[in-house]
Amino acid sequence: MNAEAVGKTYAPTVYAVGREKIREYAHAVGETNPLHLDPAAARAAGFRDVVAPPMFCVVYSSQSVAPALFDPDVGINFALMVHGGQEFVWGPLVVAGDEITTTVSVKSIEARAGNGFFVFESQSVNQDSETVCTGTWTNIVRGAA
Amino acid sequence: MNPGDAIPALKTTPDRYLTVRYAGASGDFNPIHIDEDFAKQVGLPGRILHGLWTMAQVARAQTEAAGGPQSLQRLAVQFRGMGLPEAEIEVTGEVREVRDGVAVIDTRAVQNGSAIIRNAEAEVRLPTIQE
User: Fold this and answer.
1) How far is A17 from chain B, CA to nearest CA, in Å?
2) What is the spatial distance between Cα A67 and Cα A13, in angstroms, rounded to a whole number?
3) Contacts of A29 in chain B (CB under 8 A)
4) I need a surface site. Which of A27, A106, A144, B69 has the fewest CB within 10 A?
5) What does the pLDDT read at residue A1?
6) A3-17+54-141 CATH fold
7) Residues of B with Cβ-Cβ distance to A30 under 8 angstroms
8) What residues of B are in contact with residue A88 (Cβ under 8 Å)?
9) Would the pLDDT of B130 be above 70?
């Protein structure tokens, strides 16, 4: 395990949030709230367009997490990796038409009970520089330590 | 919502092709989720659910209980074991405390008697009561 990668930050990625992508995601996770599906209902509630479910953060931030997971400096053995834990903290809601910029960094690399704990942090901001989501991604590599 | 209150249970059964739809919606095409043969080759019982899909069910239980997507401020979960298609998942939760209009909820997702998401904690902002 290479703790020297802690603090490493990756190039930001930009994700343009589309109405149909929100609806596709909402259907896949079983959301029925019209705020996610019906632009008229969203506008009536004061939003510019359909609202992304909070967990849509996975869609706009995971493309930024991938380069960190595959970084040889981090050195994760995928055959032995499991997604151990996940935390998201949300700010203002994301709506269709937003552009979300996500930056990922290596938060910690630690050995615990013979396993490797690789923790990444993602920070996603909208076009108004508001933080819409902070993610903490914990991946466990069995027997890595 | 007051301390000790349970949130309404959310029950959902992912159908046979759910993981394919979620792969497309999320962009996570790891073959352990969509390729039965591949999943078995790497020692799994078959295709398994995406953990983040199951987390989305935990999130949905909170937003449906609290009145909409704007209520959910934070969700932290631990994944254990694996979720499978075509078996019911139940999300339950109880309010642990309420401070400054935010309820802290202990929550989990159970399938076939085992918690596939456990030790989860949600923070939801409660609707302001109109006088």
Assistant:
1) 13
2) 11
3) 22, 25, 53, 56-57, 60
4) A27
5) 77
6) Thiol Ester Dehydrase; Chain A (3.10.129)
7) 12, 57, 60
8) 74-76
9) no
The nearest alpha carbon in chain A to B28 belongs to: A62
Considering only the beta carbons, identify the residue of A21, A59, A93 that sits closest to B70: A93
The answer to whether the Cβ–Cβ distance between A27 and B28 falls below 8 Å is no
* ipTM confidence score: 0.95
- Kindly list the domain boundaries of chain A, sorted by start residue: 3-17+54-141
Please state, in angstroms and rounded to a whole number, the distance separating the CA atoms of residues A17 and A99: 6
Alpha-carbon gap, residue B37 to A36, rounded angstroms:
35
Q: Is the pLDDT of residue B93 over 50?
A: yes
| CB interface of A with B, residues 54-113, below 8 Å | 54-55, 58-59, 62-63, 79, 82-90, 93
Q: What is the pLDDT of residue B129?
A: 59
* Ranges of H-type helices in chain A: 19-28, 34-37, 39-44, 57-69
Helices and strands per DSSP (H, E), number in chain A: 4, 5
Q: What is the pLDDT of residues A49-86, one digit of tens each?
A: 999 999 999 999 988 999 999 999 999 988 788 899 99
| pLDDT recorded at residue A2 | 77
Query: Distance between CA atoms of A85 and A83, rounded to whole angstroms?
Result: 6
User: How many Cβ atoms are within 10 Å of A52's Cβ, its own excluded?
Assistant: 28
